[in-house]
Structures are given as C-alpha cells and as structure tokens.
Specification:
By secondary structure, the protein is an alpha+beta fold. It contains 27 helices and 28 strands. The strands form 6 sheets. Strands 3-6-5-4-7-2-1-10-13-12 form a 10-stranded mixed β-sheet, with no helix packed on it.
C-alpha cells in the first residue's frame, strides 16, 4: 500500500541542498513554463520522496544519482494541499541526487505563487510565495526550514523588464531577437517562500546608493520599481530607505545581508508587502506618493517599509524552522519598525500607533478562542491563519515589554548575539529566549516569564489596591485572565509578568517595576505613600487592569496631565471595564470630556469606538439625539477650529485630528451640515455640477475618501455612476480603494445591489475586493441585503480570494451581528461549508464568539441603558 501523503511537515529523510530554476515568462500569455533542478540529499535508502507542487503540469522528470546515472521517475500530486510524490525505478541508496523537472502552469489568478495582473493594456507577472505558495510556481520543498541557494534564470520578451532576488549577471538574446535570457547571481541560502521574480513593463528608478559604513564595507544598490508611468511617485520612499538600512545595521551590527535592494510596487497584491530577500514587493499604493497623497499614506509607507526592511534581518537572514515560530519573523519586524519610526520620524507618532496596534490585538486576545503567539501548526489551515494581530502586534508588544524590563542595552546585546549565531540559517523561539536570558542574567526567571506569554493565549488582568500605613506604602496586585462580560473559562491561566507602575507625589512622578509571578503579591512601594498611581507606566505592559475604587478616584483628576500613551491606556481601562460589565455606558460617556480636549488625536478619540458601539446597540430613538448632541458639543468646535482645508501651519497631529473628527462627526454622529459640505466637495471632484470630468485632485486628499463617501450617500446615483466611470480609467491604486469604499457605503437599495454585483466582476481586482465589501457591511443599512446576496454568490467569491484571506468572506458576513438569532443564522449557514473554507474553523469560532459577547453585553446593559444618563444630559 502506498504511503499516505504527509500533509504536515515533510519527512526528514530528504533535504534539498540547492536549486537551479529557469522560467520562461511572457506576461501577455496565459501560461508559463519552467525547469527546476534540485540537488537533494537522501539520508537513507528510498524508492520515493515527497515534495510540493500545486496546479502544475509536469512534462518530464528524471533523477541523476551521485555516479551520474540517469533514472526514470514518476511524478504524481497526491493531495490537494500540493503534496506530490516522486517515485524512482528502484530503491536508491543514501546519497546526493539531482531532480530535473520540466513543467508548465497557468499564471495564478488569486495573487499567489506566480500570478498575473492587468492594468489597462499592460500585463505584469509577480510572485507571492509566503506562506506556502511557492508550490504554485515550481516543484519544491516548500517549508521554511529548508534554506538553500537559488540560481535563477528568466527568459522573457525582449521589451519586458525582469527582476529577481539578486543582481543580473548575464543577458543573452534569442536567435530570432524576440526573447532575452537573464541569469541572476546565486542567492544566499533562502527558504522557498522568500524567492521572488517580477516581469512586465515596469518603470525602474535608481534610488540613492546606500553608502558603506562601519558595519557594511561596500555600498549597496537601491532601486524603485513601479507600473509603467508611476516611477516618479517612488522618489519619496527611496529617500527614506537608506536611513532605515543604516538604523538596523547599527542596532544589529550585522550588514544588510543581500547584494542589492529593490522596492517593487505591485498593481495588485494580497498582503500589504512581502519581505523577499533583496526584492521587497508592496501594494503599489504604499510606494506611490505625490502631492495628492494623504498624510496617512506617508506614515503608512514609512512604517511598512521599515517593517519589511527589518525582515531582511529578522526572517531572511535568520529564518524560523517551522510556522509555529512565525511570530519571530513578524513580531520582531513589527517591534523593530516601531523603534525605527519613533527614532527616525518622530512626527509620525510611532509610539502611539504601536500602542493602538497593541490595543487592537487585545480585542482579538479577549476571545476564549484566541490563538497563542506560538501556536502549534498541524495543518495548512493553521499556517494560513497564523498571520494575524496576535502574531504581529501582540508579539511585538510582548517583546517591547521585556525590553523595558531588562533594559535596552541588554536586549540589544541579546539580539546581536542571536542574529550572529544563526545568520543565513534558522533560529527558534528557544534559541532567542536562551540568548535573552544569557544577556540579561535572569536565566530561568526570564525564560519562564517569556514562555508564559508565548505558550498560552489571553490577556493578564491585574487588580490593584494601594495600602498606606505609617508613611509606608504597599501595592497589592492579583492576576487573572481578562474576559468580557458573560464569558466563563475553566482555565486558571497565570503569567509571570513585569509590571511597571507610575507613582505621583505632588506632581513629581517616578516609576517602579516588579515581577508578578504569583496569583497575588504585595509589593513595597519606594518613596512612601503616593497621591496616585497608574499600574502601566508608559503603557508598555501587555495587560489590562482594574484599580480599587479609591485609587481610581485619586487618579481621575490627573488623567489630562499624563503622557499621551498613559492617557490612552487609561481610556482602555475604562473601555475594558465596560466590556466586562463592571462599568456603565454612562460612565464611559462621562469619561470622554477629560480626553476630548487633548491636542493628541489618538488621545482625544480614544473612546470613540466605544461611543459608536453604545450608539448602535444601546441607544434608542429617544436617547440617540441626546447622545449625538453630547458628541457634537465635545468635538464639533474642535473641527470648526481646524477647518476642512489644510493650512500651511498644520502639524501632522492637526491633519490626523481633522481626519478622525470628520469621519466620526459625518458618518457616526451624522452631522447634517458637515455631510452636506463633504457632499459639495465630492460633487466638485466628480464634476457633477460643472458638467466637467472627474478630477479627484480638486479635493483635500486627506478628506477625499470622506467626500466621495458623502457624495454617494447624499447625491446617490449621479455620484455612484461617476465613480464607476472613473474606476474604468483611473489606475491610482489609493484612489481606487477610496472610490470602491465610497460605492460600498451607499444606503440606496438599488445602488447597493449594483455595488455588490460590481465587486464580483473583473473590474475590481482581487486585492481591492475588501475595500468595497468591508465598507458595504460597515453600514448597517446594507447588512441584510449583503447576507442574502452573499449566500447566492458564495462559491464564486470564495474562489477569487487568495488562500490566506479566503476566510474574509466569513468575517465580513459576521460584521455587526449582535443577537442570538444572528449568531444562529451565521452558524447554521456556514457550518456545513467550514471544511472547505481555508482557515474557516478558527475564523468561525472567533466570529461566533464575538457575536455572543456582543449580545451578552447588550443584554446586560439593558434596554434602558442610557435612560438615566440621557435625562441628566438633556
């Protein structure tokens, strides 16, 4: 009987040593062809081996043994996950052999493997191999532990631009002059998921050379690559990149590991960006920047570039051996990105952005179904769902918390030793933890503390109480798992966590850190009894807290004087108490004024998500006008002072404040005057009143999306049709996202149906689908109609989505549900389909639990949750 195909890890009896990969690619064709030679080590006698290939037609395969003898071989795909068997004509002894496989395949249509994108009359071919999509591009051992050199050769039409991970070394032209063949330098050892090529009519822009320094003795070539005509928009990000490289080289004391760096903007891409060694691929919207770009585009572009460049060390130089340690790649890049942004671009408020990211991860981590940072990987579904906020933002927050506890110098020393010890190889969680433990001198204490965060899910929840006696102070701290209202867990999870507390004595502030390693402990407070304290100094701890009532009352008058990060973490304590059912909706609303006056947009708006939830699920026709008037009183004067047009003196904070307040007042509070002004601006941009053409540069770029959305909602069909027409000719990706979101936001039933159907056509690229449908279901007026439409279009929509994001369809269908009947409706329809929905099991559990939590909190608050508060705020 034939062996069962290994759908998890491949067996250890075979190890790839090197690849030679030749691809013939014409972006105007529907298929490509390739030949791959893989030098393989057999560690024991075998008559067959396992590898990966998916949707590939093999034309010829042969095996050459160590003595040069050629053997017949048979290739067969054995599992739909892409596991393939190569069987020999007999048993081969342990030795090094060479597989040679000629094959052909269609260009992928789901933004994975080797895929094709059309922009107008131009065609582009791009790769996206992570996590397990190299198998769509070439037969391979598609696991991260197998790092080998790659020799890549591309044969392409003579007028196309072709790039790969390394510098081109040789170019020849075919006898008929129609093709050129480019051979690239051998790569350093790479896993298959970091191999990258791109072919098309690209603009190639030389960036500033990355100068040699004390760490890297040779200069490094930097280029930007964009779709035809977009090259000039790459200038800004190319100027930002050399300082990022130098920053990481100084921190790690490891030179940039590869022979060049290309930043390529793909016209359609499934992720934000991908850290391919020497050829980082982005959604082109992240690189294309000009005078019509939003302020958030500058920030996001820098942040994502800092993240992907960090991966050249954390992920590419040192790679995880298996996907259960993918947090080492993503959390480290997120952590490093935050450091680089704070130090290199202080105006971008990287410290506040990463904190908001941490709080976003906490929302997911509040679920009982939350995954661990280091989650066991047993199936391809587990791999595809590992790239989430727990891996990225929670992982980064945990790294930063331990950095704060151990000291930046010790931490930096540990990072340098870890990278040096595992350069061009693999490194695991255990390797990293051992390095940090050794550098910090905290040994087993550090190891146990880090593992308590890596190997169990959830958020620590601290209860604190200050006791003062005879001038001496003690802080009593106990811990449990943070759980929303109505959620009960039999797990008695405990953490070993560093806790840094801010103490205030007459306006003088100090910080003291403790290690909480028991269920409850008392800590002596240095300096005597404080006037007040905050349990999470600088907001670097990954935990939530509830203070004793008297302690909380002592802190409340000081909130406005806290640093911005601590004001945000205070706001989170208010919000999380409400979600736990221990604080009333009225108390949340009454906490808003202390924050609303801040000049820091992230502080001023810190409770607006909770306000929106209260407005949607607790407010009635009687109380909603009072709620809206309250919000208008707090925020409308602030927006009036800022105005809707940018001013020369605007700071980045002023711009961000304007954007946030416009979004809140126009589309949550529904301020009629503001909506009409945005509609007027949207109509101007769309040429509706002048009989002219669409020109989106006529509106403030930071409010362009809001103006288009207001125009569709207020002006209806004329605005909707104008946007449809513009989408047919406009290839500015960022503007396309905004236009699609505006279409989705319609409240008109007929236009809603048109929007849903439009999203299912090729006019909307795969990577644009979420812009339309996420905006659509964000409007409660559209949710029921979308649900009915989705049920009849489920198969075709799921078939378009990349494997890694296929479960998006379930997430979007669950948006806004907050009742038992809505829970049952979603569960009943999706449950039979979960086995065939990639990532569906985990996403179903999380979606249903979120609905259950929402319904429980809504019921707990009661039908008259705002009655008393509204009466006192008339």
């Amino acid at each position: 009987m034939a062996d069962a195909p290994p759908t998890g890890k491949l067996p250890d009896d075979v190890k790839p040593l090197a690849y030679t990969l030749s691809l013939k690619i014409d972006p105007r064709a529907d298929r490509f062809s390739g030949r791959v030679h893989i030098r393989v080590k057999l560690t024991e006698p075998l008559d067959h081996i396992w590898l990966h290939a998916s949707e590939i037609d093999v034309d010829r395969i042969e095996v050459t043994d160590a003595l040069g003898k050629v053997h017949k071989a048979h290739f067969e795909t054995r599992d739909k996950s892409g596991v393939a068997e190569v069987s020999f004509d007999g048993t081969l002894p342990a030795q090094n052999i060479e597989l040679a496989i000629d094959y052909n395949a269609a260009f992928n249509t789901k933004l994975q493997g080797l895929y094709k994108v059309k922009v107008g009359s131009d065609s582009y071919v791009i790769t996206q191999m992570e996590a397990i999509s190299a198998r769509y591009a070439f037969p391979s051992f598609d696991e991260p532990r197998f790092k080998t050199p790659f020799d890549v050769t591309l044969t392409v039409p003579k007028d196309e631009v072709a790039v790969a991970n390394t510098q081109p070394m040789k170019e020849t032209v075919s006898a008929d002059g129609q093709w050129k063949t480019i051979s690239f330098a051998k790569t350093r050892p790479l896993p298959t998921y970091l191999v990258a090529v791109a072919v098309g009519p690209w603009d190639v822009v030389d960036g500033p050379t990355i100068a040699a320094n004390s760490v890297r003795k040779q200069p490094t070539t930097l280029r930007g690559i964009a779709p035809r005509g977009a090259g000039p928009q790459l200038k800004w990000i190319l100027q930002q990149t050399p300082p990022i490289i130098a920053y990481y080289e100084d921190y790690t004391q490891q030179p940039y590991p590869f022979d060049k760096l290309d930043l390529l903007g793909a016209p359609d891409f499934s992720a934000g960006a991908m850290e391919n060694a020497g050829l980082i691929v982005f959604r082109d919207a992240l690189l294309r920047i000009d005078t019509n770009s939003t302020a958030s585009t500058y920030r996001t572009s820098f942040n994502v570039t800092a993240h992907e460049v960090a991966h050249q060390w954390f992920g590419d130089l040192v790679t995880v051996p298996w996907w259960d340690d993918i947090w080492l790649n993503e959390a480290f890049a997120t952590w490093a990105q935050g450091k680089a942004t704070v130090d290199l671009q202080p105006d971008f408020q990287g410290d506040l952005s990463r904190l908001e990211g941490t709080l976003g991860a906490m929302r997911s981590d509040s679920l009982l179904s939350a995954r661990k940072i280091r989650q066991p990987i047993r199936s391809n579904d587990d791999i595809q769902t590992a790239f989430d906020g727990i891996t990225y933002q929670k992982g980064a927050a945990v790294l930063r918390m331990f950095e704060e506890w151990l000291g930046e110098s010790n931490y930096r020393q540990a990072m340098r030793k870890y990278l040096a010890a595992h350069a061009f190889g693999s490194g695991s969680s255990d390797d990293l933890i051992a390095s940090i433990a050794a550098a910090s001198g905290r040994g087993e204490t550090l190891q146990a503390a880090m593992r308590s965060f890596l190997d169990q899910p959830g958020i620590p929840f601290l209860h604190t109480k200050l006791r003062c006696d005879g001038g001496k102070a003690t802080l009593a701290v106990s811990q449990s798992r943070y759980l929303p209202y109505g959620v009960v867990s039999s797990d008695n999870l405990q953490w070993k966590l560093p806790v840094c507390v801010r103490f205030d004595r007459g306006g003088k502030r100090s910080k003291q850190c403790f290690l909480l390693d028991q269920a409850a402990q008392d800590f002596a407070v240095d300096g005597g009894c404080p006037d007040a304290y905050l349990p999470n100094a600088d907001a670097v701890g990954y935990f939530r807290f509830a203070m004793d009532a008297a302690d909380s009352a002592a802190l409340r008058p000081l909130v406005a004087t806290l640093p911005p990060t601590e004001q945000i973490i205070y706001a989170d304590s208010v919000s999380s108490a409400f979600v736990q059912g221990t604080l009333s909706a009225g108390a949340v609303l009454d906490a808003m004024p202390a924050l609303a006056t801040s000049e820091i947009p992230q502080v001023a708006t810190a409770l607006l998500d909770q306000f929106e939830w209260i407005r949607e699920y607790l407010a009635t026709d009687a109380t909603r006008p009072i709620l809206d008037a309250y919000a208008m009183k707090l925020y409308a004067p602030r927006l009036a002072a800022l105005g809707l047009q940018p001013l020369p003196a605007d700071t980045p904070m002023a711009t961000e404040m304007r954007v946030r307040l416009v979004g809140f007042l126009a589309f949550v509070v529904q301020d009629k005057a503001l909506r009409q002004e945005l509609n007027r601006q949207g109509r101007i941009a769309l040429g509706l009143d002048s009989g002219g053409t669409v020109d989106l540069t006529r509106v403030n770029p930071d409010l362009r999306g809001a103006a288009l959305k207001a125009a569709v909602q207020e002006s209806g069909e004329p605005a909707f049709r104008a946007i449809i027409g513009e989408l047919a000719v406009n290839h500015q990706t960022r503007q396309r996202y905004e236009m699609l979101a505006a279409l989705g936001a319609t409240h008109d039933a007929k236009l809603g149906e048109d929007a849903r159907n439009y999203g299912a056509t090729p006019a909307v690229a795969v990577g644009e689908i979420s812009s339309l449908y996420s905006s659509h279901v964000a409007e409660r007026e559209n949710r029921q109609a979308f649900w009915q439409w989705m049920k009849t279009h489920y198969e075709s929509l799921a078939a378009r989505l990349p494997d890694q994001t296929q479960s998006y369809i379930l997430r979007v269908a669950g948006t806004g549900r907050c009742s038992k009947s809505q829970y049952e409706e979603l569960q009943s329809w999706f449950s039979p389909r979960i086995p065939t929905l990639i990532g569906g099991q985990r996403v179903e559990a999380q979606s249903l639990e979120a609905i259950d939590q929402c319904a429980a909190l809504r019921a707990h608050a009661g039908a008259n949750a705002l009655g008393g508060w509204a009466e006192s705020h008339r």
